[in-house]
Amino acid sequence: MSTIVSPSLLAADFLHLEDEVEMINRSEADWLHMDIMDGIFVPNISFGFPILESVAKVCKKPLDVHYMIMHPERFIEQTARLGAMMMNVHQEACRHLHRTIQDIHAAGMKAGVTLNPSTSINTLEDVIQDVDMVLLMSVNPGFGGQKFIEKTIDKVHRLKQMIHESGSHALIEVDGGVQAETAPRLVKAGVDILVSGSYVFKSTDPIATIHSLKQLSSANQEL
Questions:
Q1: Does the pTM of the predicted model rise above 0.85?
Q2: Closest to 46 (Cα-Cα) out of 21, 10, 78
Q3: Cα(143)–Cα(177) distance, rounded to whole angstroms?
Q4: Active site residues
Q5: pLDDT tens track for 152-195
Q6: pLDDT tens-place string over residues 52-89
Q7: Which of 196, 216, 215 lies closest to 206 in space, CA to CA?
Q8: Which residues are paired to 67 by β-bridges?
Q9: Sheet holding 86-90, edge to edge
Protein backbone atom coordinates (compact mmCIF):
# COMPACT_ATOMS: atom_id res chain seq x y z
CA MET A 1 0.00 0.00 0.00
CA SER A 2 1.43 3.39 -0.94
CA THR A 3 1.59 5.99 1.78
CA ILE A 4 -1.48 8.16 2.32
CA VAL A 5 -0.92 11.92 2.07
CA SER A 6 -3.27 14.15 4.06
CA PRO A 7 -2.50 17.88 3.60
CA SER A 8 -3.38 20.02 6.62
CA LEU A 9 -5.88 22.78 5.88
CA LEU A 10 -4.49 24.76 8.81
CA ALA A 11 -1.71 26.05 6.52
CA ALA A 12 -4.06 27.04 3.67
CA ASP A 13 -4.84 30.57 2.51
CA PHE A 14 -8.18 31.20 4.22
CA LEU A 15 -8.86 34.26 2.08
CA HIS A 16 -9.05 31.88 -0.91
CA LEU A 17 -10.22 28.74 0.84
CA GLU A 18 -12.39 27.38 -1.97
CA ASP A 19 -9.46 27.63 -4.37
CA GLU A 20 -7.26 25.77 -1.90
CA VAL A 21 -9.80 22.95 -1.54
CA GLU A 22 -10.22 22.71 -5.30
CA MET A 23 -6.43 22.38 -5.57
CA ILE A 24 -6.59 19.46 -3.14
CA ASN A 25 -9.35 17.92 -5.27
CA ARG A 26 -7.14 18.07 -8.35
CA SER A 27 -4.05 16.76 -6.57
CA GLU A 28 -2.94 13.25 -5.62
CA ALA A 29 -3.78 13.93 -1.96
CA ASP A 30 -5.69 11.03 -0.43
CA TRP A 31 -7.37 12.85 2.47
CA LEU A 32 -7.79 16.40 3.77
CA HIS A 33 -6.60 16.90 7.35
CA MET A 34 -8.58 19.43 9.39
CA ASP A 35 -7.25 20.68 12.74
CA ILE A 36 -9.91 21.95 15.14
CA MET A 37 -8.43 23.95 18.07
CA ASP A 38 -10.25 25.48 21.03
CA GLY A 39 -7.62 27.72 22.64
CA ILE A 40 -7.86 25.63 25.82
CA PHE A 41 -6.41 22.22 25.07
CA VAL A 42 -3.88 23.93 22.79
CA PRO A 43 -2.76 27.60 22.87
CA ASN A 44 -4.42 28.53 19.59
CA ILE A 45 -7.85 28.74 17.93
CA SER A 46 -8.25 27.53 14.34
CA PHE A 47 -11.73 27.13 12.87
CA GLY A 48 -15.04 25.53 13.73
CA PHE A 49 -18.14 24.01 12.17
CA PRO A 50 -19.00 26.83 9.73
CA ILE A 51 -15.65 26.23 7.99
CA LEU A 52 -16.00 22.45 8.28
CA GLU A 53 -19.44 22.57 6.70
CA SER A 54 -18.30 24.82 3.84
CA VAL A 55 -15.27 22.66 3.09
CA ALA A 56 -17.31 19.45 3.24
CA LYS A 57 -19.58 20.77 0.47
CA VAL A 58 -16.75 21.17 -2.06
CA CYS A 59 -14.06 18.72 -0.95
CA LYS A 60 -13.97 15.44 -2.89
CA LYS A 61 -11.40 13.86 -0.59
CA PRO A 62 -12.24 12.02 2.67
CA LEU A 63 -12.14 14.37 5.66
CA ASP A 64 -9.57 13.52 8.34
CA VAL A 65 -10.85 15.61 11.27
CA HIS A 66 -8.41 16.11 14.14
CA TYR A 67 -9.86 17.59 17.33
CA MET A 68 -7.33 19.42 19.53
CA ILE A 69 -10.04 20.33 22.01
CA MET A 70 -11.38 19.41 25.42
CA HIS A 71 -14.40 17.09 25.47
CA PRO A 72 -14.40 16.17 21.76
CA GLU A 73 -17.05 13.53 22.48
CA ARG A 74 -19.62 16.35 22.52
CA PHE A 75 -19.23 16.76 18.76
CA ILE A 76 -19.37 13.16 17.50
CA GLU A 77 -22.85 13.34 15.97
CA GLN A 78 -22.23 16.77 14.46
CA THR A 79 -18.98 15.55 12.89
CA ALA A 80 -20.69 12.47 11.49
CA ARG A 81 -23.42 14.62 9.88
CA LEU A 82 -20.71 16.43 7.94
CA GLY A 83 -19.73 13.16 6.34
CA ALA A 84 -16.29 12.98 7.98
CA MET A 85 -14.42 9.76 7.32
CA MET A 86 -12.14 9.92 10.38
CA MET A 87 -12.72 11.55 13.75
CA ASN A 88 -9.47 11.84 15.65
CA VAL A 89 -9.37 12.72 19.36
CA HIS A 90 -6.50 13.28 21.79
CA GLN A 91 -5.85 10.64 24.41
CA GLU A 92 -5.02 13.48 26.81
CA ALA A 93 -8.43 15.13 26.28
CA CYS A 94 -10.67 12.08 26.77
CA ARG A 95 -11.48 10.92 30.27
CA HIS A 96 -13.36 7.88 28.92
CA LEU A 97 -11.37 7.12 25.79
CA HIS A 98 -12.75 3.64 25.14
CA ARG A 99 -16.33 4.92 25.27
CA THR A 100 -15.46 7.78 22.92
CA ILE A 101 -13.94 5.35 20.40
CA GLN A 102 -17.07 3.19 20.58
CA ASP A 103 -19.33 6.20 20.06
CA ILE A 104 -17.31 7.37 17.03
CA HIS A 105 -17.70 3.94 15.45
CA ALA A 106 -21.39 3.86 16.30
CA ALA A 107 -21.80 7.17 14.45
CA GLY A 108 -20.39 5.55 11.30
CA MET A 109 -16.87 7.02 11.30
CA LYS A 110 -13.39 5.60 11.73
CA ALA A 111 -11.80 6.37 15.09
CA GLY A 112 -8.35 7.86 15.51
CA VAL A 113 -6.45 8.67 18.69
CA THR A 114 -3.68 11.26 18.89
CA LEU A 115 -0.70 11.34 21.26
CA ASN A 116 1.21 14.51 22.11
CA PRO A 117 5.03 14.29 21.91
CA SER A 118 5.32 13.78 25.68
CA THR A 119 2.63 11.07 25.89
CA SER A 120 3.79 7.45 25.97
CA ILE A 121 2.40 4.93 23.51
CA ASN A 122 1.81 2.69 26.55
CA THR A 123 -1.33 4.71 27.27
CA LEU A 124 -2.92 2.99 24.25
CA GLU A 125 -2.28 -0.62 25.30
CA ASP A 126 -5.91 -1.23 26.27
CA VAL A 127 -7.48 0.41 23.19
CA ILE A 128 -5.00 -0.30 20.40
CA GLN A 129 -7.18 -3.10 19.02
CA ASP A 130 -10.20 -0.79 18.89
CA VAL A 131 -8.75 2.17 16.98
CA ASP A 132 -8.42 2.56 13.23
CA MET A 133 -5.53 5.00 13.42
CA VAL A 134 -2.99 6.48 15.84
CA LEU A 135 -1.68 9.97 15.14
CA LEU A 136 1.71 10.78 16.64
CA MET A 137 2.35 14.51 16.95
CA SER A 138 5.91 15.22 15.87
CA VAL A 139 5.62 18.82 17.06
CA ASN A 140 3.80 20.26 20.05
CA PRO A 141 0.22 20.85 18.87
CA GLY A 142 -1.22 24.30 18.31
CA PHE A 143 0.84 25.94 15.57
CA GLY A 144 2.06 25.04 12.10
CA GLY A 145 5.59 25.36 10.78
CA GLN A 146 7.39 23.92 13.82
CA LYS A 147 10.62 21.91 13.79
CA PHE A 148 10.28 18.12 13.63
CA ILE A 149 10.95 16.29 16.94
CA GLU A 150 13.54 13.60 16.15
CA LYS A 151 12.38 11.28 18.94
CA THR A 152 9.26 10.63 16.83
CA ILE A 153 11.15 8.16 14.63
CA ASP A 154 11.82 5.87 17.61
CA LYS A 155 8.24 6.33 18.78
CA VAL A 156 6.97 5.15 15.39
CA HIS A 157 9.10 2.01 15.64
CA ARG A 158 7.74 1.22 19.11
CA LEU A 159 4.14 1.90 18.09
CA LYS A 160 4.54 -0.33 15.03
CA GLN A 161 5.74 -3.14 17.29
CA MET A 162 2.79 -2.66 19.66
CA ILE A 163 0.34 -2.81 16.75
CA HIS A 164 1.96 -5.96 15.40
CA GLU A 165 2.09 -7.74 18.75
CA SER A 166 -1.52 -6.87 19.63
CA GLY A 167 -2.93 -7.97 16.28
CA SER A 168 -4.34 -4.47 15.74
CA HIS A 169 -4.98 -3.13 12.24
CA ALA A 170 -4.43 0.49 13.25
CA LEU A 171 -2.66 2.78 10.80
CA ILE A 172 0.04 5.20 11.95
CA GLU A 173 -0.24 8.90 11.05
CA VAL A 174 2.36 11.59 11.81
CA ASP A 175 1.75 15.34 11.87
CA GLY A 176 4.38 18.06 12.25
CA GLY A 177 7.47 19.00 10.28
CA VAL A 178 6.69 16.54 7.48
CA GLN A 179 8.65 17.52 4.36
CA ALA A 180 11.08 16.13 1.79
CA GLU A 181 13.77 15.22 4.33
CA THR A 182 11.59 13.72 7.08
CA ALA A 183 8.90 12.01 4.96
CA PRO A 184 11.03 9.12 3.64
CA ARG A 185 12.48 8.48 7.11
CA LEU A 186 9.01 8.33 8.63
CA VAL A 187 7.71 5.96 5.97
CA LYS A 188 10.75 3.71 6.38
CA ALA A 189 10.05 3.61 10.14
CA GLY A 190 6.49 2.42 9.49
CA VAL A 191 4.26 5.48 9.03
CA ASP A 192 1.17 4.92 6.86
CA ILE A 193 -0.20 8.48 6.66
CA LEU A 194 1.72 11.73 6.30
CA VAL A 195 0.09 15.00 7.36
CA SER A 196 1.82 18.01 5.82
CA GLY A 197 0.70 21.61 6.14
CA SER A 198 3.20 24.40 5.48
CA TYR A 199 5.35 22.23 3.23
CA VAL A 200 2.38 21.72 0.89
CA PHE A 201 0.37 24.94 1.06
CA LYS A 202 3.31 27.36 1.25
CA SER A 203 5.14 25.78 -1.68
CA THR A 204 5.25 27.46 -5.10
CA ASP A 205 3.51 24.43 -6.64
CA PRO A 206 1.42 22.54 -4.05
CA ILE A 207 0.21 19.92 -6.53
CA ALA A 208 3.79 19.08 -7.48
CA THR A 209 4.78 19.03 -3.81
CA ILE A 210 2.01 16.54 -3.01
CA HIS A 211 3.14 14.46 -5.98
CA SER A 212 6.72 14.48 -4.68
CA LEU A 213 5.53 13.31 -1.26
CA LYS A 214 3.62 10.46 -2.87
CA GLN A 215 6.68 9.50 -4.92
CA LEU A 216 9.05 9.68 -1.93
CA SER A 217 6.67 7.67 0.17
CA SER A 218 6.04 4.96 -2.39
CA ALA A 219 9.72 4.60 -3.24
CA ASN A 220 10.83 4.28 0.36
CA GLN A 221 8.09 1.86 1.31
CA GLU A 222 9.64 -0.61 -1.12
CA LEU A 223 13.00 -0.56 0.73
A1: yes
A2: 10
A3: 11
A4: 35, 175
A5: 999 999 999 999 999 999 999 999 999 999 999 999 999 999 99
A6: 999 999 999 999 999 999 999 999 999 999 999 999 99
A7: 196
A8: 36, 89
A9: 4-7, 193-196, 171-175, 133-137, 110-115, 86-90, 63-68, 32-37
